[in-house]
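Dear colleague,

Following up on Tuesday's group meeting, I ran the structure prediction for the two-component complex that the binding team flagged. I've pasted the input sequences exactly as they went in, so you can double-check that nothing got truncated or mislabelled along the way. The C-alpha cells for the whole assembly follow below. Feel free to forward this to whoever is handling the docking comparison.

Inputs:
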Amino acid sequence: MPIDHTKNIIVVENVSFAYDSEYVLKDITLEIHQGDYVGIVGPNGAGKTTLFKIMLGLLRPKSGTVKFLDQNINDFKDWQKIGYVPQKTATFDFNFPATVHEIVTMGRYRKGRRFFAATADDKQAVQNALAQVDMWGYKDRLIGDLSGGQQQRVFIARALVNDPEVVFLDEPTTGVDREAQDGFYSLLQRLHGELDLTIVLISHDIERITKEVMHIICVDRVLTCHTSPEEYLKESKSANILGQDVKIIAHHNHK
Amino acid sequence: MTRGLEAGIIISIISPLIGIFLVLKRYSLIADTLAHVSLAGVAIGLFLGVNPILTALITAVLASLGIERLRSSRKVYGESALALFLSGSLALAIVILSLARGFNANLFNYLFGSIVTVTSNDIYTISILSVTVIFILAFFYKELVYVTFDEEAARVSGVPVRLVNTVLIILTALTVGLAIPIVGVLLIAALIVIPVIAALQLRRSFLKTILYAEAISLISVISGIFVSFYINLSTGGTIVLIMIAIFVVIFAIKRS
C-alpha cells in the first residue's frame, strides 16, 4: 500500500496537562501524518515526555483530545499499530534475567491470547524484527550483557515486532556512544524508508536530529514551532543573532 | 514426616513461581509483610474461635489490596506501605494475644510452622491451592513477565497492568496465608524470595532462572527436613539457613 501523506496518524487538539495547578502543557494542537519522521525538541522540563505519554494514552490530559487513527485514544484498542521505545532511565534493570529473544517476544502480547507458548507466527515475527535491526545473532544473549546501542536496537525490534504503523522513541540515544549513534540513526532512516514507518522521536540533541527528521516540533509548555528542519535552523540562527534564544545553543553542549 | 515432606515439596514448588515476579519488581518484602499480616489474622481467628486459616487468608488478601491501593495512590512510598502493614499487623497480633491468654503456644506454631504435624487435610488444601496458583500464573504469564520488565511499554501494548498487579498480589496473599500453618511466617517469606535471589546470581534467561530457583527451593526444603529431623533442629530455620548457604556459594563462585 502506498503511503498516504494526508492520512492522519495522530491528531492532538487543544491538549493541556497540569500537575496540581501548575501547567506542564498548555493548549497543544498538532497533527502527525502517515510516513512522517518527526522530532520533538525542547529544553528539559518542557513537557516533551508528558506530551508523548498523553499521545500514547498513558496520561489523561486535563483538557483536549488525542485521536489515534481517527479514534479517540481512550477508546483505542488497536495497540499492535503502535510501537513504543520508552526512555531508558536510571531505573532500567541491567540485571533483569531476560534474553534478547525473550524481550522481543514480550512485544507479541495480544489480548485474549493465553498461556506462554509462542505460536509459529510469533517466532517468525520475532526473528524478522531482530533481523531488521541486525540483532538476530544476539538472540540468546542477556539484555544486560549488551552495549547501550545494542540494547536500544533490541527495544526497537520489540517495538517493530507487530508491524506497527508508527513507532515512538523517547530519547533513544541516551547511553549510546557517538559512533553507535550514527548506526542507530541510519537504522531509523532505513526503517522509515523500507517499512513506510511513521516515526516520532524525542531528543534534546537538536543539532543531530535536524539532519535526520522531516519535521521539527518544539515544545516548551506550549507549542513553539512545527516546521521543517531547514526553517527551524534558519529561524533559530536569526533568533541567536538577536540574542533571544540562548536556550537552544546552551542545549547543544548539554550532554 | 512423610506428610511434612509432601507439604514442604508442594510449597517449595509454588513459592519461587511467585517470588520471581516479586523480587524483580523490587517487592521482596511483600511476602514477609503478608506473612506477618496472616499472623494477625490467625490471632483474630483464635480469639474469635473461628478457623484461623480462614481469617488468615481473609486478612492477607484484604491487606494485599490495601497495600497495592496505598502504593498506587503515590501518597506513600511502596516500601513505606509495607512497613506500615508489617508493624501494624505484628502489633495487632500481640495486642490480641495479651487480650486473651491461653493460645500462646498455638500462635507460636504459626510463627515457626509445624511441618512435622501436617494432617492429610492440610495436604489436600495446599494441593488444590498450588494447582490453582500455577494455573493462574500460567494464564497470566505473558502479562506478568511484560509488566515486571517494563510496565510502561506493557501498558502501550494494551496489557491491563493494574489487573495483572492485583492478580499477583492476591496470589501472594493466598499462598502465604495457606502455607503459614505448615511452614510458618519465617519460612514462607524466605521460600518466596531466597531461591529466586540465588538463581538470579547465575544470570540466565527468565525461564531458566525460574527452573534454577525451583531446584534450589526443592533441594533446600528436602535436605532441610531430613537434616533437622535426624539431628533434631528447627525445621524452618534449617531450611532457611541451607537456602542462604546455597546463595552464598553461588555468589562466591560467580564473583571469583
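The interface with chain B takes residues 56-58, 77, 79-80, 82, 84-86, 93, 95-99, 102-103, 106-107, 109-111, 113-116, 140, 142, 144, 158 of chain A (CB under 8 Å).

Cheers,
M.
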